[in-house]
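Researcher: Go.
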Amino acid sequence: MTTLEDYIECVSTVEQHRHRPERWVAWANALLEKLSGAGVLPPQHLTRGVVVRDGVWVDRPPNCRDVKELRDNGTQRTNYRFAEENNCLRLLDVSFNKAEEHSAGVISGGSRTHVYTRLPGLAENYLKDWLFVVTAGKGIGSTFIVSNNQEAIPPGNWASAYFLNPPRNSPYIEEGFIENGYFVSPRDYLILSFVAAFEPVVSMSDNLGIDGRYDNLVEAWFRWKCEEQAQSMSQDCMYWGNKFIDELAQLRAEMLNRINKPQGRQLAGFMGGRR
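Model: Structure:
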């Protein structure tokens, strides 16, 4: 995937330095929102570990657009029926006891891929497949399945717990994203599969989550935004605005053609025949 910093190379060096990174980030997110609204962003199929609260309630992830299934984490085979109410999921046929919360000890933010924890006697990979639930910080409510952890050497020293599903674009872990949390054992949480909306970019080094098919469209968008800042009614501004509209229409047509492939025609005298 291409980063935002790579994409803005389509404009002149002067334009690149004329606008602050915050403006490029805002323009990039406005583009992603527009593409999402037009239905031309590739869907993000994600899975998250979730904890059942009050017996039957599961919170939807903040970027969840459509829930696909809710299944048992242990066997990965049992799917649970649910109803969507008040932006939450209510289990219909089963009720769970409160999940046992295991203290994470002292927490120190690591990076977007892991967190430092200080737990006495923590053995290597003891926390593998456990769920880490954020209870304080900018990421409150986020959950991360642990892929592996280091051994605390000496006992009581800092050890890293690495996430299986780290946020793609989030440097905030270093800036108070995780301030506290707890671990839940693999038997005490469920797996939620869902389709996510686009993930906003937060820095120039983040990728936009799109591929080369979007290159011409992205170039037209950024050139259009630059021209709007310079002179909103100039010929160049109108040209790039129209260019963006044309590229978006072409992209939508291509996607529709891939979805609605020709099925051929049915010929009389042939049972179900296609040509």
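Model: The mean pLDDT is 84.
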